[in-house]
């Protein structure tokens, strides 16, 4: 059973083929560099770039996997949430291929793609598991109960975590996307205690009930620190390293506090779970400092920790193809007329499955 996955919801044009034995037969990701000059993704440019490259990438993915469209068992495509112009490019191509070749069509929720990736990359990750989903547009703590069945324990009440990384990088004049740049700079900090003393930062929501998060106050505090610097200081790599390290460390503290509460809820709900697992997924999951922080936290609770390999953390089509495989196994085939959605919360997937099953 093999499925072609297509991803075009943001600034990565991607095509991949995955089979039900968990083999990645091909994986192409083209990261659009056109947006760098703007310090963020420009939707119109993104949509045009997808249009320019997608057909070539799909062909390469087929060639690499030594297969062709006739031999596929389905087409899976990101149908939202995301920048709708880009999503439409992928969806129209996937619908055309599915119609011409009479293939099952899977309208995949991009976030579900991130959420299910660890079931592809881990040996035996069973439902339910606890998930921290952190990307450029989303920050959520969820219990993944089944395909399409998510319970949200916490979410950001303002900015997404990836966005906070991107903003910090932009204020320091580092490149885009900002997360990897901030992480790299933070590694150069020689004295974290000194950095935290010089650049004290708030820890939004820490100590509060529940698992909601907030990053806009933290972002503002970073901005104030940077604005208070002289021009030469702002460009000084040692000072940049201190700011990045203080920022990243504070994020670690916030995530630990918010997740502690979610872990306790999860363990109370599933006291008999043999291998309770915390999974991190989404672009920010590539951050090694955050991974290490969460590994320490899970060890304290005798929980497993799982994270996809770096290249499957940021946007890719492997995760979309895999979500298609998971759905094909359960015969959850989408209607070819499914409309793409710019906004599509994970918690809305379940009612859809129940409706389809009752028809
Ligand atoms: O999942 P993703 O590729 O795209 C969205 O669906 O948003 O996530 C992109 C986000 C960006 O904000 C980027 O700065 C962040 O993930 N990111 C990181 C790292 N690598 C990517 N954030 C922190 N540390 C990283 N190493
Ligand atoms: Zn994503």
Describe this structure in words.
It contains 12 helices and 10 strands. The mean pLDDT is 95. The strands form 2 sheets. It has a 5-stranded mixed β-sheet with strand order 3-2-1-4-5, with helices on both faces. A 5-stranded mixed β-sheet has the order 8-7-6-9-10, with helices on both faces. The longest helix is centred in the last third of the chain and has 33 residues, at 237-269. Helix content is 46%, strand content 18%. The protein has helices at 43-64, 84-101, 110-121, 161-171, 178-187, 192-198, 216-227, 231-234, 237-269, 288-300, 318-329, 349-358, and strands at residues 2-7, 12-19, 24-31, 74-80, 105-109, 129-134, 139-146, 149-155, 277-281, 304-306. With 359 residues, the chain is α/β, with parallel strands linked by helices. Helix 10 links the parallel strand 9 and strand 10. Helix 4 packs across helix 5 (178-187). The chain has 2 domains: 2-115 and 312-358, ATPase, nucleotide binding domain (Nucleotidyltransferase, domain 5); 128-310, ATPase, nucleotide binding domain (Nucleotidyltransferase, domain 5). Bound molecules: 5'-O-[(R)-(carboxyoxy)(hydroxy)phosphoryl]adenosine and zinc ion. Zinc ion binds at residues 110, 114, 135, 282-283, 315.
């Amino acid at each position: 059973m093999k499925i072609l996955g297509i991803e075009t919801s943001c600034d990565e044009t991607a095509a991949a083929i995955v089979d039900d034995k968990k083999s990645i037969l091909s994986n192409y990701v083209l990261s659009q560099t056109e947006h760098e000059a703007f310090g963020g993704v420009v939707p119109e440019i993104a949509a045009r770039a997808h249009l320019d490259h997608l057909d070539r990438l799909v062909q390469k993915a087929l060639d690499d996997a030594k297969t062709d469209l006739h031999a596929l068992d389905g087409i899976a495509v990101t149908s939202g949430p995301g920048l709708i112009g880009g999503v439409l490019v992928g969806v129209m191509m996937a619908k055309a291929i599915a119609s011409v070749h009479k293939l099952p069509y899977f309208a995949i929720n991009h976030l579900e793609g991130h959420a299910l990736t660890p079931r592809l990359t881990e040996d035996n990750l069973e439902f339910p598991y606890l998930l921290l989903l952190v990307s450029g547009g989303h920050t959520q703590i969820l219990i993944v109960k089944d395909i399409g069945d998510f319970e949200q324990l916490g979410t950001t009440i303002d900015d997404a975590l990836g966005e906070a990384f991107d903003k910090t990088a932009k204020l320091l004049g580092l490149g885009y996307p900002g997360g990897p740049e901030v992480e790299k700079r933070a590694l150069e900090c020689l004295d974290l205690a000194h950095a935290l003393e010089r650049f004290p930062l708030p820890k939004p929501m820490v100590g509060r009930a529940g698992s909601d998060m907030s990053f806009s106050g933290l972002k503002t505090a970073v901005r104030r620190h940077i604005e208070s610097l002289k021009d030469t200081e702002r460009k000084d790599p040692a000072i940049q390293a201190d700011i990045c390290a203080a920022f990243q460390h504070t994020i670690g503290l916030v995530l630990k506090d918010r997740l502690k509460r979610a872990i306790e809820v999860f363990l109370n709900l599933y006291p008999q779970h043999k291998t309770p697992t915390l999974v991190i997924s989404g672009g920010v999951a590539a951050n090694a400092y955050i991974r290490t922080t969460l590994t320490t936290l899970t060890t304290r609770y005798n929980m497993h920790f799982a994270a996809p390999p770096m290249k499957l953390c940021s946007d890719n089509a492997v995760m979309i193809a895999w979500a298609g495989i998971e759905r094909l196994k359960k015969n959850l085939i989408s209607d070819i007329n499914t409309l793409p959605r710019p906004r599509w919360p994970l918690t809305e997937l379940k009612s859809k499955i129940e409706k389809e099953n009752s028809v």
